[in-house]
Write a structure and sequence with these properties.
This protein is α+β, with helices and mostly antiparallel strands. It is built from eleven helices and twelve strands.
């Protein structure tokens, strides 16, 4: 099986950071080591040169007295030359270099006739030496000294060895320790990745529950900000899923209710049509009776379809605005709705208290809002229940309050009273109401005007409060 190394881009981030840190540290160590070794070499060279200068300067008296040098380190070489015009004559001594190496000394001595000279040479069988030639007594004596450099080179080699070992140990410790610290510091990121993988294992098709969050603290300010942003994103996704699930449930319920509401009048229409065809063909009275039933059911289905169409248009208001606002007096609309209620609902006394309120709105739709609220009050309260409509202006808002003194709406039903097809008794009979779209239409029309509707109900008092902006935004 052939092993293939993964590309660097596929390595884990912690490993790449640790190796990058190691490479940076190695570069720094090389630079520091080079500077340190170079500085040490220069220092040792200067020190050796100074020793040679001091030694040669100290030989002046010996040369004046005996013509030779004796006070030099035992491992040094020294050759003394007498200057005789242009000729240099070497003087016998105790620490002369090997005969075969004398050529380098002679050459350097000739150069010293004009200036002091330093030179580094390898002497065969002796090693590396530092040579210096100078005139110790002007135009009389030239001394060429040679100091061995093996101590200096040994010190440099030892320094390099110790430095390499120390730097390698530090580099290994830095990479291993850095990787451990980086892994610990990146643990919160790993937790976030685990959370993301955990989310992928959830079935979010029919559930809006995403109760998964990243816990824990630490990792620094940036990680805390990332963790907070990650949890906010999860909370947003959770709320979005919950909203989507609720919307899907409402849609299913809406489709089921709409199907039932449409099926009922269609069934009635088919049944009365059959009766009209078979049983009532020879009876004019029965025929008219069945025709009236057919018209009634058709009218009922027409109202239902009109409400559904209006709600659909309100839902897609951005592409098809359902309102036609104009300058109007809200009290005029309220008076018209009250007159219609007096004529159709003689069993419910109505009190109208309407101030003149000028505003920009769609009068037809506001009339529909009032008609639906008044019809709702009449249908769901017993005969003799007083109904009140009050129109006022408050702080730039037009306020409509429709109230009755009926039995009230149970608290458990108040939260869903504006849902489409929702009835307080949850029955599908038509004995006490219509399709359950009236209040849904009211809420949608109020919100389309930029307003709000609130319900406050208890036994003996039910109040719908509508607030509308007096001028379109």
């Amino acid at each position: 099986m052939k092993f293939r190394l993964k590309p660097v881009r596929d390595w884990r981030l912690g490993t790449r950071l640790a190796l990058g840190l190691g490479a940076l540290a190695l570069t720094v160590f090389v630079i520091v080591g080079w500077v340190m070794v170079t500085s040490m070499k220069d220092f040792l060279d200067r020190r050796l040169d100074d020793q040679m200068i001091i030694s040669q300067q100290g030989s002046v008296k010996e040369l004046e007295y005996s013509g030779k040098i004796t006070k030099i380190p035992p491992d040094w070489f020294a050759v003394v030359y007498r200057i005789d015009g242009d000729q240099l004559t070497p003087v016998p001594g105790d620490q002369l270099p090997p005969e075969n190496e004398r050529g380098d000394f002679d050459s350097l001595a000739r150069q010293a006739l004009t200036a002091d000279k330093f030179e580094t040479e390898y002497l065969r069988d002796e090693g590396k030496f530092r040579l210096r030639a100078c005139q110790v007594i002007k135009d009389e004596w030239i001394v060429v000294s040679a100091a061995p450099m093996h101590d200096r080179d040994g010190t440099i080699s030892q320094l390099i060895t110790v430095g390499v070992i120390a730097f390698l140990a530090a580099l290994v410790a830095l990479v291993v320790g850095g990787q451990a610290l980086i892994r610990k510091g990146m643990q919160p990121l790993s937790d976030m990745a685990d959370t993301a993988h955990d989310i992928s294992s959830h079935d979010l098709t029919d559930s809006g529950d995403l109760a998964v969050r990243v816990d824990g603290r630490g990792g620094g300010v940036e990680v805390e900000e990332l963790r907070e942003a990650f949890n906010k994103m999860l909370a947003h996704i959770d709320s979005s899923l919950a909203a989507r699930t609720a919307a899907e449930q409402r849609l299913r319920r809406f489709i089921a209710d709409a199907s039932h509401e449409l099926r009922t009048p269609l069934t009635s229409l088919r049944g009365y049509a059959d009766l009209f065809k078979y049983a009532a063909a020879n009876e004019p009275g029965e025929r008219e009776k069945h025709l009236e039933k057919l018209r009634s059911e058709a009218s009922r289905m027409s109202v239902l379809l009109d409400d559904l169409l209006l709600l659909a248009r309100l839902d897609s208001a951005e592409s098809e605005p359902p309102l036609r606002p104009e300058e109007m007096d809200l009290s005029v609309v309220a008076e018209a709705a009250a007159d219609a209620f007096h004529a159709a609902r003689t069993t419910h006394p109505l009190v109208l208290d309407a101030d003149t309120v000028r505003m920009t709105a769609d009068p037809t739709r506001l009339r529909q809002v009032l008609d639906n609220l008044l019809t709702n009050a009449a249908v769901h309260t017993p005969a003799g229940t007083a109904v009140t409509v009050k129109v006022t202006a408050e702080n730039g808002w037009a306020v409509i309050r429709v109230s009755d003194t009926g039995p009230g709406i149970p608290e458990a039903d108040q939260a869903r009273i504006f849902d489409r097809f929702y009835r307080v008794d949850d029955s599908r009979t038509r004995q006490r109401g219509g399709s359950g779209l009236g209040l849904a239409v009211v809420q949608s029309l109020v919100e389309a005007h930029g307003g709000t509707i609130e319900l406050a109900s208890r036994p003996g008092s039910t109040v719908f409060t509508i607030r509308l902006p007096r001028h379109a935004g």
